Amino acid sequence: xxxHQKFVILFLVILFFAFLFFYYFNERYYSIExxxxxxxxxxxxxxxxxxxxxxxxxxxxDYYKDTWTNSFIIANNxxxxxxxxxxxxxxxxxxxxxxxxxxxxxxxxxxNKHFSISFWxxxxxxxxxxxxxxxxxxxxxxxxxxxxxxIYLWSDFPSLHIRQTIPNNYNxxxxxxxxxxxxxxxxxxxxxxxxxxxxxxxxxxxxEKNFFYYANGELVYQNTLEKTPLKPKGNDYIQVGxxxxxxxxxxxxxxxxxxxxxxxxxFPRPLTSCQVKMLYDENSENGNxxxxxxxxxxxxxxxxxxxxxxxxxxxxTINNNDQSQITxxxxxxxxxxxxxxxEVTDDSSELEQSMAxxxxxxxxxxxxxxxxxxxxxxxxxxxxxIYNLExxxxxxxxxxxxxxxxxxxxxxxxxxGDRILFTGSSLTVSFWxxxxxxxxxxxxxWKHISERVQHVFSFQNISANSKIGWITVSIAVSYIFCxxxxxxxxxxxxxxxxxxxxxxxxxxxxxxxxxxxxTFYVNGIFDKTERNKEVPNRNDQNGEQCIGRIIRNExxxxxxxxxxxxxxxxxxxxxxxxxxxxxxxxxxxxxxxFQIKGYKHEKSEAVEKCKEYNADVAxxxxxxxxxxxxxxxxxxGWVSDVNHAVYPIxxxxxxxxxGGSAGLKIYTPPTDKAAVNCYGEKPKQTENTKKVLHNWNExxxxxxx
Length: 705
What we know:
Layout: H1 3-29, E1 36-37, E2 40-41, H2 44-50, H3 71-75, H4 81-88, E3 114-123, E4 131-138, E5 150-154, E6 159-163, E7 178-179, E8 182-183, E9 199-207, E10 210-215, E11 218-224, E12 237-239, H5 244-247, E13 259-267, H6 273-283, H7 289-297, H8 300-303, E14 342-343, H9 373-376, E15 377-382, E16 393-399, E17 406-409, E18 427-434, H10 446-452, E19 454-462, E20 468-476, E21 479-485, E22 490-495, E23 504-510, E24 518-522, E25 525-530, E26 538-539, E27 545-547, E28 562-569, H11 575-582, E29 591-601, H12 606-611, E30 616-617, H13 620-628, E31 637-638, E32 646-649, E33 663-666, E34 674-681, H14 687-692
Parallel strand pairs: 31-34
Antiparallel strand pairs: 1-2, 3-9, 3-13, 4-5, 4-12, 5-6, 7-8, 9-10, 10-11, 14-17, 15-16, 16-28, 17-27, 18-23, 18-28, 19-20, 19-26, 19-27, 20-21, 21-22, 23-24, 24-25, 29-34, 30-34, 32-33
């Protein structure tokens, strides 16, 4: 072989290995992480461009940036009557001249057929049943109920309404509702889909005849109109907030304190599902529930409300050192998972077949109906951010099958029954519940509720007047109905805490002290106290106690949803106990990324390591958000959702670390051991924690201090 041929071959070999080294070095060690979704990796730069909201200049929409507020809070410090009225009604105005922000004057001349909007919302309590306007491209002449194109909240339930104006019929509705001869065409989302006592990041995408609604980055609902929406008229303006004229009636609980919003942004084009997911990932740390709650409770008008007493929690004067659950007839503490639901049919309803053995032995049990414990007992991971939890919760629950009538009859378990033993003491009932409610609110009426009511549980007891009574929890439309009957009188309360196919935690505290108040918590957040109620007096030795249906009515009103962690305590819990027992985040807990240092942890150890600090393993997106907030350490660590280690860098630490560029970097040590990136409340710096946790530069990056 000639000399020049050898030289060419050697050159090509060197070039090949140089290319491999550059690719491996760049991609594995110093590459910036790319965003990906179910459809595969997408171009981050094009997504960044799409996620740039419209710049409206200095307008009243600025008040929502990084701040939980609503139109009443914004208008509170305004003296000018004209400005005050416009701000109270949610009309977006220029700060300098108080002129309305017209749709036709938006920068870039976006179409009202092709745009997107995102916002955080927190609904604290209900208001009857007028619309609160969240966002609307309003038309001044279409004034009936504000039914012009836009997004509305029926905050008595709460339910989101999305409308697109169509020719000759601006009342675009559900499609199966007829009123005064006018059929409402499809175009309205009318479901129980906004979380109550929970912050929700909403994104709505309008695309010609379609709209898509996303909650926390996940698609919830989409709809296609039969007709094309109308173009905006010259007097169409933007409105965000609540409607002063319809809402402000505090004595009737029709008040503006029910909700606050944050970070309202308009995008000039329809976002894709990947872009919506990316938008949520970038904003998910901004929805602190306690900040939203503080915004409502700090409102001056809220402090003066005549109904404020309903928002003051009851505190028991009794010391509850023993926090065991209530005792049952077998002498053991109540255990919801002790028995599995059984199917009830027309010919077997009077003799329910119990499981062969108590669940918990490690082997699936099968009852006479052929139902195994594994078929109804399921497990779900509840995200700490969405559900206001201290850390991610593993919830074991029973799925009361949609196709079968399932129930647990405590009075038919064991030889003499395994009823709950009521003693007349105070009581606390708590549970996680999820129900696939699909009722249209346009069908809503009391007859409809009575026909569609489902009973979660019903326990019979003997009242103080020696008459048979019962305590029952039911659901209908979006409400939890809590009621107690003492043989003569019904005691009743309701809370709007059923979000379609979403988990919610309910705590019902019944006190036998003083005026016997009932206190309610939703997702660990205090809801209300109602007084002059009752508590179950004592046990009926022959009474019925059922989970999944109502007593003495075995063939109707079965619960068709999921129920988990049902607990019953023989004392009145305090607010702190509700939070502690439910695993909810403490008030104003700030969560962020921190790192357990040392290249000595395998990926499989990450969960337990973070749990030592009451934290979760951080996700890739959470570390990336930390980097955008100047997180900066040259130490790679595991994350929860990918199999390689990552670290955030701003190029301000060790020279050369990160390859000279900022971003989220990938580096997995050759030993496959790394540090661990955790997400939770940052531990305080002590001599002990400095030995274990990465000692970041607190003056350079500490998001909340």
